[in-house]
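Example A, followed by Example B.
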Amino acid sequence: MKLFIQQSLLLIVLSMCNITYAVDQSLDIQELKPYLNNPKLIGSGPLTYLGFKVYDAHFYSTDELGKAGFALRLDYVRKVLNEDLVKATVKQMVRLGASESEISKWQSELEKIYPTVEQGHHITAIYQPSGSTTFIHNGKLAGKINDQQFSKIFFSIWFDQKTNSPDLRTKLLGELCPPSMISNSCIK
């Protein structure tokens, strides 16, 4: 009887976790609806740095190739300063081929957009077919960059085959190819 009660309690706790996850996912999708038509969660995974988890990433898309738009939500599990977010993003963009003039322009825009994030904060970057990337911080508009090349290089940080986080890329994409604006060929 004691084992039955323990198993029952475990099932209740696990079902509560699933309900919480479903509610959280529903809230994520609500945040995206003003920007994307019928977004669906494609994949999720953690990013770790030097053995410490920095954030959980979630990839949403409206279609298999992301042609109608997609979003990447980063749920932070620790505090990261604005300047550290900008520095890390710029470093990856340079590694992926951004020019000095592009970096100069984009860095100043990112410095205005990126907040200092605390544990429990999230930033969502939303790509729209117009070529723009909209940034949302904890449900509020943080800024927008209207530059197709910026969008391509920015999202390549996670989705290009040359990413520094290939395991995360695999978890985000699942069985899908990277968004077509990043690569016209399907390299998983």
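Example B, a separate protein, is given below in the same form.
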Amino acid sequence: MTPRPAETPATPPWPEAAALLAALRPEMLALMDDLTATMFCAKDVTGRYVAVNQVFVDRTSERSRRTVIGRRAEELFVPELAEHYVRQDREVLGSGRWLRGVLELIRRPGGAPGWYLTSKLPVRTDGVVVGLLSVSEDLRTHDAADVAVSSLSRVVALVHDPLTEHLSISDLARAAGCSPSTLDRRIRRVFSLSPQVLVLRTRIDHAASLLTSTDLPIADVATASGFYDQAAFTRTFGRLTGETPAQFRRRSGASDRGATGRPAGGTG
């Protein structure tokens, strides 16, 4: 099958779109066009689509990217799905933090819903959030009620809860309603990670976001990311990133923001 040629994006007529596109490399946008099972979009701070790939267009009732650009989720998707997207976007734009590895049911072309793995990240220019990028990978399950995938939504919620400091594989297996060995297979199938690495990656991702978007003390970052003490957090962070939390923060410039403890560049 011959792939459809990429459309050249028109120059956006509104300033928020121009600000976001100026922060994105054309090579990255071109690469997104080559994805065949992953939806991609870039939204400005007003919630309007600035860039999308053809996979994204195919999940709407439109046929061309030109008819999607400049519109909002509520103009393209059913109300409950659009409201869900808007809530996610507000969280990312308002906090300046990543949303990573969220399991979602999204309707595929033809009407059948399927499981997708969604991540969203804020885009900044000079410390100010100018928009977000979103990708949703089709997990290609054949049944929206697939127990192997749907049970992992409970596991993901538990992993993202910083109050559950000492998560064991047994805890995760109980949340999924399966044995530890079955859980291991399911998580590797969906995330290509072991359960232990999924927990650590999620918490280090959260910590990195706090280090780069707030000036919270490192001890508070450790607690907010589910680590029982700062020393354990520092060891784990260094092992996985190659830098101490303080080094990571200095390199990001987050330590220069003052003493508010609030996200930098948040948009209300």
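On Example B: The chain has twelve helices and five strands.
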